[in-house]
Write a structure and sequence with these properties.
alpha+beta
């Protein structure tokens, strides 16, 4: 399984920059950490650690990016309507770890 992680900057498998996940929340632009995971059955699963209610997926990485941005916008709107505080920007990192096993 391969993980692709981002914090402000999305990174493709080849290391190229794909741009930030940004959302307009009515008070300006906010950027969130998003983790993308490739699924064995195809497609990509995405979640935002700062917003535990955000879990989505897409058939392609670009579709997963669009879906997660839409989900973040909706979550911020619901939090604002409920009078809840909006989360601070955090940091998420997923990286490969090599292990030796028999």
């Amino acid at each position: 399984m391969q993980w692709i992680a981002c914090y402000v900057l999305l990174v493709e498998d080849d290391g190229s920059d794909k741009g930030p996940i940004t959302v307009m929340d009515g008070m300006g632009v906010r950027q969130f950490s998003v983790v993308f995971e490739s699924c064995q059955e195809g497609g990509f699963y995405a979640y935002a650690p700062e917003l535990p209610e955000i879990h989505t997926q897409g058939d392609t990485l670009d579709e997963a990016r669009e879906m997660v941005a839409d989900a973040i916008e909706l979550a911020l709107e619901v939090r604002r309507e409920r009078g809840e505080e909006l989360p601070d920007e955090g940091f998420a990192l997923a990286e490969k770890v090599a292990v030796t096993f028999p």
